[in-house]
Write a structure and sequence with these properties.
The chain is an alpha+beta fold. It folds into three domains: about 110 residues, Butyryl-Coa Dehydrogenase, subunit A, domain 1, CATH 1.10.540.10; about 110 residues, Beta Barrel (Butyryl-CoA Dehydrogenase, subunit A, domain 2); about 130 residues, Butyryl-CoA Dehydrogenase, subunit A, domain 3 (Up-down Bundle). About 45% of the residues lie in helices and about 15% in strands. Strands 2-3-7-6 form a four-stranded antiparallel beta sheet, with no helix packed on it. The protein has a three-stranded mixed beta sheet with strand order 1-4-5. Strand 2 and strand 3 form a beta hairpin. Helix 8 runs antiparallel to helix 9. The mean pLDDT is about 90.
């Protein structure tokens, strides 16, 4: 990534104006995948795509000071590129951190411009919160790797062009030590993607099956058998991406949504509703401040650390609180509606989708363990398989 250099007030003002002009023209396209691709392509063309990534790999080659301005201006608009939060918030920085120059040259420009979308494949049926228990295998065969196994809960796998996955490359060492990370073409022979249908009729998550899938030898991402450390870095990026979404400034999207709903339904003068609104206002303000601190640490050159779990956990707690408040204010409109696209349906879908906030990127329990262990320094839980070769651990 680009090194950070302080901007003069004139430089900062000029760049902010450039961002505002671009966003005014391109940030109103809704929240579909297609609108996100158009937005990202236009941003790359305007020199605003991949702000901190090198120009030779398709980025803008600017500083983290530029990135802070871009995020602050972008936060004033709906997240038109929200569908790319995994592709850009997780896969892109990991490819930049661990990829070879050849891999970066091949993949990053199309990734930044939205021409390709990427997914992350970590979780398995018996390796969810304990991802290191994964059983997907990658075996070297000449100039290729042969991959077998299953991933689950893979967001947007069905529309992704590439994926980053972790697989076991050495089962004869303890479970964390024999894992490697790979790049995978999601259209490769032997890959089967099965949708997990949601109660609202949507399709966001998938099961992905690998049957003798072959990938080039040089699609190993990072060091052989060091995939767990790289996966940990990717999870930190994920928690930062989720926990600091729109963190260019103080951002209170749930408060704004609830205030608008209460005003429309004539509940804005209700003292209980007003107390609930101010609770969300305070919680989202605090979350934004934590997110801004996390971004400031990254701006100072620090890699994402366990503090990212604080923002992630805060977002989940806010979502849980918002669910009950929204249903109280929305009343029957949030339970039944007559026509597609009515406010009640949108409210119900918002409530339904909020449940994933306590799961995606690691459950609330996992976030609390990370905060307790790595932030507060509390004792760790006992691990009965510590130091035991993976192939000596009984299958669940």
């Amino acid at each position: 990534m680009s090194s950070d250099t302080a901007l003069s007030p004139q430089e900062a003002s000029a760049f902010a104006e450039k961002c505002r002009a671009f966003l005014a023209d391109h940030a109103g396209g809704g929240r579909s995948v297609e609108s996100a691709k158009k937005f990202l392509a236009a941003a790359a063309e305007a020199g605003l795509g991949g702000i901190i990534y090198p120009k030779e790999f398709g980025g803008a080659g600017l500083t983290k000071a530029h990135d802070k301005i871009w995020r602050a201006e972008k936060a004033k608009y709906p997240m038109v590129d929200a569908e790319f939060i995994i592709s850009h918030g997780m896969c892109l920085p990991v490819l930049n951190d661990f990829g070879t120059d050849e891999q970066k040259q091949e993949f990053m420009a199309q990734m930044i411009s939205g021409e390709t979308m990427w997914c992350q494949m970590f979780s398995e049926p018996n390796a969810g919160s304990d991802v290191a228990s994964l059983r997907m295998s990658a075996v070297s065969d000449g100039d290729e790797w042969v991959i077998n196994g299953q991933k689950v809960w893979t967001t947007l796998a069905h529309i992704s062009d590439y994926g980053v996955l972790i697989a076991r490359t050495n089962p004869e060492v303890p479970k964390h030590a024999g894992i490697s990370m790979f790049i995978v073409d999601m259209t490769a022979p032997g890959i089967e993607i099965r949708p997990i249908h949601q109660i609202d009729g949507g399709r966001h998550f998938n099961e992905v099956f690998f049957n003798e899938v072959r990938i080039p030898k040089d699609w190993l991402l990072g060091e052989l058998h060091n995939g767990w450390n790289q996966a940990t870095a990717m999870l930190m990026y994920e928690r930062v991406a989720i926990g600091t979404a729109g963190a260019g400034d103080i951002n209170r999207p749930n408060y704004e949504m609830l205030r608008e709903l209460a005003t429309k339904n004539g509940r804005i003068a209700d003292p209980i509703v007003r107390e609930d609104l101010m609770t969300i206002y305070a919680m989202e303000t605090a979350k934004s401040l934590v997110a801004m601190r996390t971004r400031a640490e990254m701006k100072a050159g620090k890699a994402p650390g366990p503090g990212g779990s604080i923002g992630k956990l805060s977002g989940s707690i806010i979502s849980r609180k918002v669910r009950s408040i929204a249903q109280n204010i929305g009343g029957l409109d949030g339970i039944a509606w007559q026509f597609e696209g009515e406010p009640g349906q949108k409210l119900a879908r918002h409530v339904l989708n909020s449940f994933q906030d306590g799961i995606a990127g690691g459950t609330d329990e996992i976030q609390r363990n990370i905060i307790g262990d790595r932030v507060l320094g509390l004792p760790r839980d006992i691990s009965v398989d510590k130091g035991v070769p993976f192939n000596e651990i009984s299958a669940p």
